[in-house]
Amino acid sequence: MSDISVLISTDMSQCQRYTVHGVVPVRVAVPQTSADVSVLINYAAHQGWRVVAWGGGTHQLIGAPPTAVDLVVVTTALNRVLQHEPNDLTISVEAGMTMGALRTYLAQHGQMLPVDPALPDQTTIGGMIATATDGPRRANYGILRDMMIGIGVVEVNGQPSRAGGMVVKNVSGFDMMKLYHGSFGTLAVIVSANFKLIPIPPVTATVIATFAQSDQALAYITDVMESQLTPVTCELLDATLLQRIGVTGEWGVALAYEGPQAAVDRHMTELPQRAQIHGGATTLFYNETHIQCWQTIADASAVEHLAVGELVLRWATLPAFVDELVQRIGDLGQSLGGNPQIHARASIGVGYVRVTGLDANTQNQWFEALPEAVWVATNATNLDTYWHAPVGGLDVMLRIRDEFDPQRRFNPGRFVV
Q1: CA-CA distance, 381 to 378, in Å (whole number)?
Q2: Three-class secondary structure of residue 109 per DSSP
Q3: For the purposes of burial, counting CB atoms within 10 Å of the CB of 307, is it exposed (0-12), middle (13-18) or buried (19 or more)?
Q4: What is the per-residue pLDDT for 174?
Q5: What's residue 3's pLDDT?
Q6: Who's near 263: CB < 8 A, 6+ residues apart?
Q7: For residue 181, what are the contacts with CB-CB under 8 A and spacing of at least 6?
Q8: Is residue 16 within 8 Å of 59, Cβ to Cβ?
Q9: Lowest mean per-residue pLDDT among 174-183, 346-355, 358-367
Q10: Which residues of the chain form CATH 3.30.465.10?
Q11: How much of the chain, in percent, has pLDDT values that exceed 90?
């Protein structure tokens, strides 16, 4: 058993590095193995400590400030590949591995996990699971939960627990591992996860179509989605984000395709033709410019560092209502200020809006005016609410939380429950 005194530090300079939404933890621990995590959590349980898990720290500004933090458990040393079955297209990794490191490892084997979060060199696998992180390729491949086939966690009493396994079809009865996806650190500390993989496609390319009006861009998206074309991404971009990727326009639609050369060529021909019908102009990206374009788009949702008065709202609606919501966000920018910057996975109805220069009262007004907002990320520590509770699901979430963590010691006060 690991020596607790070696694992835990009360050095103030180190504790300040892991400040959780304005709250400085009393202690910090950097376990080297999943067994260390079990020892730590068991000890914390006996001490009654409030515990926060910390991966890359890229999502700690989502949600409310914690009521208190007695111990931060940093998972970045849990960064190993535990098992890889290239022929079966499955892998098991520790939760502290970053998405960037996993990409580099898998590329050597011609494989990939088709998830593209913001800041991949800092964002950890465990953090992505806990915060339900998505990315542009969600439009085709789904979210991380759809690729997860197994998970390892440490429960609130220090007990290690596993669900799923290393084969794609391995679940009978309750699919327990899906509970941890989007639980925001409230149910357990994630220490490992297993995923199904796909081969890296031979060719990739991107079309950026620009339009004068958002309704033109959304009409183009509808046209593409109703056709036989199958892009792997479908992003609605405003002028600010277009400028970041080197394209001029008021509104843009970014579409990528991955596959055989002939199929890519077809998309790179037909997508611009359809854009012209809706009054759009197009720019094509290949190779490095394609990669840089999509990392810029993915990074647009980053919330690691926010300025005073800046907030990011993640929203979700039906795809048919995206146009109305985008218009309403623009109107809110006129009435409340904040210069909203918008991008959206428009074909599935998920998006982000970033606003700046707002006091706490105006941030409250923004959140209240957008019931479609799922969460808010901000430096402000005095908002009325940081979550819109899931309709019809709050009672279930409360019962699950009471079962897993009845004393509310994991990430206390931060999540909707």
Answers
A1: 8
A2: coil
A3: exposed
A4: 62
A5: 73
A6: 257
A7: 129, 130, 132, 143, 144, 145, 148
A8: no
A9: 174-183
A10: 81-199
A11: 91
Give Cα separations from 383 to 63, 350, 364, 366 (angstroms). 10, 23, 6, 11
Rg (CA), the chain: 22
Q: In what order do the strands lie in the sheet with 350-355?
A: 281-286, 203-211, 251-259, 235-238, 341-345, 350-355, 311-316, 373-378
Q: Is 73 exposed, middle or buried (0-12, 13-18, 19+ CB in 10 A)?
A: buried
Fold for the domain defined by 203-299: Alpha-Beta Plaits (3.30.70)
At 106 the pLDDT is 98
CATH number 3.40.190.10 is the correct assignment for the domain at 81-199:
no
pLDDT at 75 over 90: yes
Helices (H), 278-380: 287-299, 322-336, 360-369
79-108 pLDDT, tens digit per residue, is 999 999 999 999 999 999 999 999 999 999
Neighbour-count burial for 194-204, b at 16+ CB within 10 Å, e otherwise:
bbbbeeeeebb
Q: For residue 176, what pLDDT is reported? A: 79
* Cβ–Cβ under 8 Å, residues 380 and 340: no
Which residue, chain included where needed, has tokens 């994630």?
190
φ/ψ bin of 309: left (φ > 0), alpha (ψ from -120 to 50), beta (otherwise): left
